[in-house]
Amino acid sequence: MNEIKKTYKNYVGGKYLRSESGKTFRIALKSEFYEVPLTSRKDVRDAVVAAKKGFTEWQKLTPYNRTQVLYRLSEMLEGNIETYQQILEDSGLSKSKAKEDTKQALDSLIWYAGIADKWEQMTGNLNPVAGEYFNISHQESLGIVFTLNSDENSLNQLLLNILPSLVTGCSVISFNGDNSIMALKLAEDINNSDLPAGALNILSGKFDQIIDDVSNHVEINAMAIYKQLPSTDKKIIRENASKSLKRIFINPPVSGLESLLPFIETKTVWHPKGR
Amino acid sequence: MNTWEYAESIESSSIVSIEKKYGIFFDGQFQSPNSKKYLKTISPSTEEVLSSVALGNQSDIDSAVESAKSGLKVWSKLSGTQRAKYLFKLARLIQERSREFAVLESLDGGKPIKESRDFDLPQVAANFFYFAGWADKLDISWNTKGLKPYGIVGQIIPWNFPLLMLSWKVAPALATGNVVILKPAESTPLTALLFAELCQEVGLPPGVFNLVTGDGTTGAALVQHPDVSKIAFTGSTAVGKYIQNETADRDIGLTLELGGKAANIVFNDAAIDQAVEGVVNGIFFNQGHVCCAGSRLVLQEDIHDEFVSKLEKRMQSLRVGNPLDKNTDIGAINSKEQLDKISSLVNEGIAEGGSIFQTDCDLPTDGYWFRPTLFTNAQPSYKISREEIFGPVLTTLTFRTPEEAIEISNNTEYGLSAGIWTEKGSKILWAADRLQAGVIWANTFNKFDPSSPFGGYKESGFGREGGRHGLLSYLKVQS
Amino acid sequence: MSLTKETKNTLSWSDTVELIDNLRVDEVGLKERVASLATRSIKKDSKLQALNYIVTMCDLTTLEGEDTEGKIGQMTAKAIRPDPSNIEVPSVAAVCVYPALVSKAKEMTKNSNVKVASVSSYFPSGQAPLESKILDTQFAIDQGADEIDIVINRKAFFEGDYRKMYDEIVALKEVCSSVHLKTILEVGELRTYENIKKASLISLAAGSDFIKTSTGKISDGSSREACYLMAKSVWDYKEVTGFKAGIKVAGGIRDSKDAIRYLVIVNEELGSDWLNPDYFRFGASSLVDDVLKQIKKLKTNAYQSGYYFPRG
């Protein structure tokens, strides 16, 4: 019970990286220990740099291409589905529950893959303004989103914390605690997919060690908190966010079109109609 | 050669009757404030005291919240169609009394009657009409589940478009089933007080619309009240940040519509004469007291001289003076405080090396006034190029390539609006995609419509007002 | 009233090409500006001043097949003294007639300041060879016309032969070297605002002293939008050449309120230098009657009946 089965690394800018601090923490699965990086404040800053590049690259893809990339990811997940089921089982789920969760995870991925090139048709519209003007509200990605993922032992929940922001074209810094093994395992499939480097970055660690740095970082445009946090933490996040008016979403929806709404900016364009 | 001067054509103010003193409005009635304190509201064009209005304190906010709670009980039981009917009636009444409102707005705020009559009031009525119609269609407004009103909404509005901002806030909040506590700006409370009378007239259930006048301390008490579950604020970025910070320990809804420093980009292939008009309207509309004002003219270098020459000529024709004169283009600066702020920023602009042009017009002796002002030879690093002046002051920056125009335009913490002037369609769409701003006006500027969402990127705030998107500011997703 | 301008200026064809290259007008923005100018509230003394301007700027016009010397007699008498009951009301600027009636008009106005203008160049269509247009124009001048109103060659314009349109005006200007040349664009046929601006600039570059909206012979005569664009063209041309051209609006301007709105456009877009008959004219037949009523109303505070004023 003291053997270290594997040491995982963070996944940042398309690379597997140790924490620059060299620190790790242990997560026990079944009878084995895994080491995962204890993300430092510097690691967060590096992840933001990577996410900025990733945002540019992810934005260059057409919505159709984003659908393709995410569908391809689902194929890869499906190919490795037993590995995920094993992690879920090793973390305490029954075989049938694990199977059910991975099935739901694949369904979620398929749903989000398929909405990448449609959501704007549901959230944008032409506005019937008075006068000779063409007026359209269309949507853009908010930018760099930090997600604090749920600790739940669930591949489906993990994807539901990442995909809403990712599918709207944001680049994502996904931060994980107890569910880090699952998340860092997912990084391997992400790495083999066609997702541009930096579009999705996966970190593990203790949130209270980086809470200030993340919520103070001006280049992180939004934080989505999918985990239950004590009110003191929420207060810290919102107070820091107020310095640059960072968008803070505490326990936002995790399904349906409403799950995407926090991550879009509405841009309304006017133009006259004349000869 | 003789000149043709336009004789004064004054809109009569006899249509308005202003009380000596106003209380706060809750439980459907005007009541004396618990604070027992009052503020004077003056006319910025004459410095004449118009009235005294309550300076609401914590205890007055408490009264308003209690009133709102009982209002919510009634309001939440009404059907959407019943709510719609109240809003339609309000819209109709506003139309019927629009001249009275317009005069009052110009008296209290200093804006030209031409604008309060032809812009503010028609838009106010239009907002109530538009959102009235949504009240019974919320279930088909968005492809989402579980949208519910917040309950008690606190709304704090600015002094630049007092009644219009009231309508942007109150109409969608009531349509979506919320009840409202409104805090109007310290310097412009009168039209909101008249609106409260209209609420009585249409028989709006008591407690649905509550109004507490006052200053910043009144607003703070509203923001801090634990039973207020949503704050909608329009005003400065500094206060917006304060509100986000102040409400950090509560799970509360926020809509913040804050400052701006909009770029108005003119390419060399623009329709120049219309671009000049657009630039003038962009910055001199409402004395430049507009959060989305096109305060940075971003001009392609090869047309700089021609454009500036036309712009200066056009600026000379702007008539500054009595807001009630139907021929006034630019009225009074809203307050002494704002005038001092504008003057100080302009002086810094001169000290930093900007070339200043101001028009020759005569200014009245009493009241607060500022000449239409244009800075050329300004650099992106100058304070006048970066800070929101919120007055009739335009700063010019030049660019060589489209990419450079975008870089200059986005080089700001603000992201409320932007303008693009070019007759080349693909360049408009290219630029619109790259400008980080919530509203893009191409070959036009400062256009508004109840159906058109408005709101900022970056530090210009979050949330949208107007249109289908505006409904989401007052509905939360209940999982 | 002097018709001599500070400078006489024409542009070469190549300079003209440069001037009309890449003309851009945004219709919605243009209309918005013109509508905004229409909200000016002109009252009291400034209204009386405007009404007097309008009288002095009027070209009292009759251009009908049925025109006779008798009709011209009536009109010229009215032109000289529009309101016999009020000697403060000035004469109009000119009378405008067909070439065949110029000599009669000239005879009737010889003891007054009222000028005689004549239409020519196969007004109103202009569908004739240049030689004929020159003869038509020369005849009117020989009859004594002080001012000549020609029409642009819309056929050439719509066929894209701007050079031909320009050359014709240059040729007619040569004929008109000693008289005042007003060039009619017929804005209702040009239809788009870019066409109006283009035709304005070509006409100015070819040597027109004035540009004029319409013949008055089609239903879409003058419009305030056209006047605004012509004012912008006049300004742009002045910036290039230093030459101050004039504008004549004609076609459908029937009442004082409308006419005052035109004056506002000229006042705010060009300035008070243009507020005199050397630089701005109204071509009209019934406008003067309404202006006279309004002047009398301002003086007496009573609304007036048409029978107080003589027929034109």
Automatic annotation (TrEMBL), chain A:
The keyword Amino-acid biosynthesis does not apply. Residues 29-248 form the Aldehyde dehydrogenase domain. GO terms for molecular function: oxidoreductase activity. Keywords: Oxidoreductase. InterPro entries: Ald_DH/histidinol_DH (IPR016161), Ald_DH_N (IPR016162), Aldehyde_DH_dom (IPR015590). Signal peptide: none annotated. This is NAD-dependent aldehyde dehydrogenases. It comes from the Bacteria. Gene3D superfamilies: Aldehyde Dehydrogenase, Chain A, domain 1 (3.40.605.10).
Automatic annotation (TrEMBL), chain B:
PROSITE patterns: ALDEHYDE_DEHYDR_GLU. Pfam families: Aldedh (PF00171). Residues 32-478 form the Aldehyde dehydrogenase domain. GO terms for molecular function: oxidoreductase activity, acting on the aldehyde or oxo group of donors, NAD or NADP as acceptor. Keywords: Oxidoreductase. InterPro entries: Ald_DH/histidinol_DH, Ald_DH_C, Ald_DH_CS_GLU, Ald_DH_N, Aldehyde_DH_dom. It comes from the Bacteria. The active site is at 257. The keyword Cell inner membrane does not apply. Belongs to the aldehyde dehydrogenase family. This is NAD-dependent aldehyde dehydrogenases.
TrEMBL record, chain C:
SMART domains: DeoC. The keyword Lyase applies. One of its GO terms (cellular component) is cytoplasm. GO terms for biological process: carbohydrate catabolic process; deoxyribonucleotide catabolic process. Its EC number is 4.1.2.4. The keyword Lyase applies. It catalyses: 2-deoxy-D-ribose 5-phosphate = D-glyceraldehyde 3-phosphate + acetaldehyde. Keywords: Lyase, Schiff base. It holds the Pfam family DeoC. GO terms for molecular function: deoxyribose-phosphate aldolase activity. SUPFAM superfamilies: Aldolase. Pathway: Carbohydrate degradation; 2-deoxy-D-ribose 1-phosphate degradation; D-glyceraldehyde 3-phosphate and acetaldehyde from 2-deoxy-alpha-D-ribose 1-phosphate: step 2/2. Belongs to the DeoC/FbaB aldolase family. DeoC type 2 subfamily. NCBIfam families: deoC. This is Deoxyribose-phosphate aldolase. It comes from Candidatus Actinomarina minuta.
